[in-house]
Automatic annotation (TrEMBL):
Membrane-spanning residues: 12-34, 40-60, 72-91, 103-120, 127-148, 160-178, 190-209, 215-239, 251-270, 276-293
Classification via SUPFAM superfamilies: Multidrug resistance efflux transporter EmrE (SSF103481)
Topology in the lipid bilayer: Multi-pass membrane protein
Family: Belongs to the EamA transporter family.
UniProt keyword terms in alphabetical order: Membrane, Transmembrane, Transmembrane helix
Gene Ontology annotations for the cellular component aspect, listed alphabetically: membrane
Pfam entry (one): EamA
Name of the protein: Permease of the drug/metabolite transporter superfamily, DUF6 family
Limits of the EamA domain: 12-143, 157-293
UniProt cross-references to InterPro entries, sorted A to Z: AA-Vitamin_Transporters, EamA_dom, EmrE-like
UniProt keyword Lipid metabolism present: no
Locations listed in the record: Membrane
Length: 295
């Protein structure tokens, strides 16, 4: 019997937790390599490597790249949104700090909820589900409360860039779900985004004045392999399969877990401190996700 995909089932929840934990660890992987490879260039290298992997995979699976399925324009739009998101994230971090960026970037689920309500039939949130999203976002505010100081003019510029990145992130999800991309093989959806970003991100790195690769140490190579093979290839394909299969307005709140997993990974691998605020935030995010996805 075909499973009910109008709500998030246990299988999807388990996959989402794995994805968010992987993306949180990815933040640590970027930090680990940033002294030798600047962040936008890292993202470009990741996209180039994952593009090659996806081409090989689709060849093995005998999936056509040239099939006329009406997705080319939508795929290019998603690729541009995907690229703009990462450029704004890393450019914005030059003006604001990482904690503030986490808060503004995690407004993305609200963009997804609004876009789903406007453009996707039968996807809307009830009042209790909206309360759940607000509660989950409040958890992010609790976890990163120390960054909620009055910003200077430079920080405001960075904050605006991160909010722009959140809009592009959310818009990418909505475009995929609301367009013909929702009906094609998830690998092809990812290939559009990886291929476009593989061209744009290295150019953006040069435009932003990032230095070239300084060294390829075992740590840097391990970081790039993790970012390319696991994050950009396996987890992104899984994410796009989830977008195609389940309501995006119910998937999006799970991404609130990503920065919290990032803090936990930083504590585990980099010796950073875990505070009572983080534990409270995890409880709030978990409660918010429950409210959004309760039957």
């Amino acid at each position: 019997m075909k499973p009910d995909t109008s709500t998030i089932d246990i299988r999807a929840m388990a996959l989402l937790i794995i994805l968010c934990a992987s993306w949180g660890l990815n933040q640590v992987a970027i930090k680990a390599a940033v002294a030798d490879i600047p962040p936008v260039l890292q993202a470009g290298i990741r996209s180039m490597g994952a593009t090659c992997l996806m081409l090989v995979w689709m060849t093995i699976k005998k999936k056509s790249l040239l099939e006329k399925d009406g997705t080319l324009l939508w795929g290019l739009i998603c690729g541009l949104l995907f690229s703009a998101e990462f450029v704004l994230i890393y450019w914005g971090l030059e003006f604001t700090n990482a904690s503030r960026s986490t808060i503004f970037l995690n407004t993305s689920p609200f963009v997804v909820a609004l876009g789903a309500h406007l453009f996707i039939r039968a996807e809307y949130l009830s009042r209790i589900q909206i309360i759940g999203m607000v509660l989950a976002f409040a958890g992010i505010l609790v976890a990163f409360h120390e960054s909620l100081n009055l910003p200077d003019s430079g920080m405001i510029k960075g904050d605006i860039m991160l909010m722009g990145a959140a809009v592009f992130w959310g818009a990418t999800t909505v475009v995929i779900k609301a367009s013909p991309l929702a009906k094609v093989y998830p690998g092809k959806v990812l290939l559009y985004q990886l291929g476009v970003s593989a061209v744009i991100l290295p150019v953006a790195s040069i435009f932003l004045g990032e230095p070239p690769v300084q060294a390829l140490t075992p740590l840097v190579i391990s970081s790039l392999i993790y970012q390319t093979v696991w994050v950009a290839f396996f987890t992104y394909v899984t994410w796009f399969w989830l977008i195609r299969t389940y309501p995006v307005s119910r998937l999006a709140p799970f991404t609130f877990l990503t920065p919290l997993f990032g803090v936990l990974a930083g504590s585990w691998l980099l010796g950073e401190t875990v505070t009572i605020y983080l534990l409270c935030a995890l409880a709030m995010v978990g409660a918010g996700i429950y409210l959004v996805n309760r039957r």
